[in-house]
UniProtKB/TrEMBL annotation:
Domain U4/U6.U5 small nuclear ribonucleoprotein 27kDa protein positions: 85-132
Keywords in alphabetical order: mRNA processing, mRNA splicing, Nucleus
Ranges annotated as biased composition (Basic residues): 120-132
Subcellular location as annotated: Nucleus
Protein's recorded name: U4/U6.U5 small nuclear ribonucleoprotein 27kDa protein domain-containing protein
Main location group: nucleus
Database matches in InterPro entries: SNRNP27 (IPR013957)
Entry keyword DNA repair: no
Species in which this protein is naturally found: Prototheca wickerhamii
Function statement: May play a role in mRNA splicing.
Length: 140
């Protein structure tokens, strides 16, 4: 019996895996898939979930990239619509024309470069009790 399986053994195994007399959509699955150990089924389920998550992430990334390309074209057209007077006004008001990092760049503004270190000073205690004039009435 090389490579063949006794039909009675397969029938007994199928009856063990499936409830006899119950019609189910799962009966169409293969015998090997139905009788896997529970840890293998759990691993397969996790693997399928990870594959679905990877596909979802990939589609979200591609959608984001496509929308970023469209938004970039829209931003360029928005900048082109501004008049030079409006651009000067925005610069005078301090509205940024573009967003860029200042990391590693020198900035001439002293307010932006001002750094301060908080020096921890020792506390000086004050006497609150037994002071003069604490019990006097305030005239008023």
């Amino acid at each position: 019996m090389s490579g063949t399986t006794d039909p009675s053994v397969l029938k007994a195994a199928r009856e063990k895996c499936y409830q006899v007399g119950r019609v189910s959509r799962h009966i169409t699955r293969s015998f090997e898939g139905a009788c896997k150990p529970s840890w293998v089924k759990h691993f397969d389920t996790l693997h399928d979930k990870r594959q679905r998550l990877a596909r979802t992430l990939q589609t979200n990334i591609s959608r984001t990239a496509a929308s970023a390309k469209e938004d970039g074209a829209a931003d360029l057209s928005y900048d082109a619509e501004l008049s030079p007077e409006e651009l000067q006004l925005m610069a005078a008001m301090g509205i940024p024309m573009g967003f860029d990092t200042t990391q590693g760049k020198h900035i001439d503004d002293d307010g932006a470069n001002a750094g301060a270190v908080k020096i921890k000073s020792t506390r000086r205690t004050r006497q609150y009790m037994n002071r003069r004039r604490t019990n006097e009435k305030i005239s008023g």
